[in-house]
Amino acid sequence: MKAILALEDGRTFEGEAFGHTGTTTGEVCFNTSMTGYQEIITDPSYRGQIVTMTYPMIGNYGINPEDAESSQPHVRGLVIGELSPVASNWRSRQTLPDYFAEHKIIGIEGVDTRALTKHLRSAGAMRSCISTELSAEEAVQAAKDSAPMEGSDFVKEVSTESNYLWDGESREWTIPNTCTGQVGTYIELPEAKYNIVAYDFGIKWDILRHLRQSGFNVTVVNSRTPAEEVLALKPDGVFLSNGPGDPAALDYIHAEVKKLLGKTPMFGICLGHQILTHAFGGTTYKLKFGHRGGNQPVKDMRTGKISITAQNHGFATDANSLPDNVEITHVNLNDDTVEGFRHKKYPAFSVQYHPEAAPGPNDATYFFGEFAELIEASRK
């Protein structure tokens, strides 16, 4: 079935629908990852967005439940150049179109994603509409009428309603190798040495898996949980997760995190980093087209080391807004934006990117170990 992608500035792209039909709206953005479309689709940080994959062919390895980042897809729609007619992977359990049909997500293929991405780089991420039923003019108007990303609070839509202890499968998947003695497809977990609380702002399952692999027992709590309730659990540390939307709209979260400063070690990722920005007294702003992909270069200002990182965010910390007691530790080499910082007095640090990747490189997984070291140092 014919479909149209319409942007709020009036530009339109034609293609073929797959998965579901109808009309959907959201902020259109692009991701430069070559693999990992399933993880991207199921990442709660993409709530409210229509994602464009710059890699030309998508769907070639199907869908596998073991690689999901949450229990459902969160994208409003998916824009691709070509949909693979075959899902060829022994771990695949479902095709991408069937998965979208099951969850009523609209995909559009046959789009010139190179032209779309160049347009978004010039004009910026913007509101958009995918439709199989509206005219071009109607679809453009639907995009204009949709809610902007600025001021949006999607965290309330994706955060857990009930607190829980993470007990999902966390063993690292591997390929059996008799030469090294690896006989199964999983690497056994280490002893859990630390009990931490993780605020769920839209937490990815692979973050929870990495925390458990790094020796943490994780109690996951709702984004609205008061600081007093968190401290009553007597955690060894608190983790602030990734999530969707505008960090400046989450003042009710900023206030609770601020109460935790100096009371317990804290580590934040992505939205958690931006929330710490506000808790420290700083501000955030919207990037023109964001950082989304597995190839973002980041420099550690303390060591000079450069890592290639996985990122997914449309907002950033204003470096000039940070107080003197906050040290910027990491910067993005593409645009010099803040990618990490630490508090000079309190045991709290964060990074804007994703150490757990999924998808992406593993250059930054050491941060989970640094969190454990911070907890140990705070005990002395």
TrEMBL record:
Residues noted as binding L-glutamine in the record, renumbered to the chain: 45, 243, 245, 271, 274, 312, 314-315
Catalytic reaction equation(s): hydrogencarbonate + L-glutamine + 2 ATP + H2O = carbamoyl phosphate + L-glutamate + 2 ADP + phosphate + 2 H(+); L-glutamine + H2O = L-glutamate + NH4(+)
GO biological process, one term: glutamine metabolic process
Region of interest (CPSase), residue spans: 1-194
Active-site residues, Swiss-Prot/TrEMBL: 270 (nucleophile), 354, 356
Enzyme class name: ligase
UniProt similarity note: Belongs to the CarA family.
Protein name, UniProt field: Carbamoyl phosphate synthase small chain
Gene: carA
